[in-house]
Input
Amino acid sequence: MSETLCELTKLLKKHPADYLALVDPPKFICLECGRVAQKKKNLCEPEKIKTLQEKSG
Output
């Protein structure tokens, strides 16, 4: 799947379980829109959540 979560809003509405499988557990956050996902390929501007936590902590 090469589409980002931003482009998958129809999937969320029609197949919420499939959408949730892409985001749970979250490992990356999009610095553009704030969405989270398991894999960075599903986000426009991904950053590891752990890395951001380490930078701010």
User: Anything to note?
Assistant: The two ends are 33 Å apart (CA to CA). Residues 5-56 form one domain.
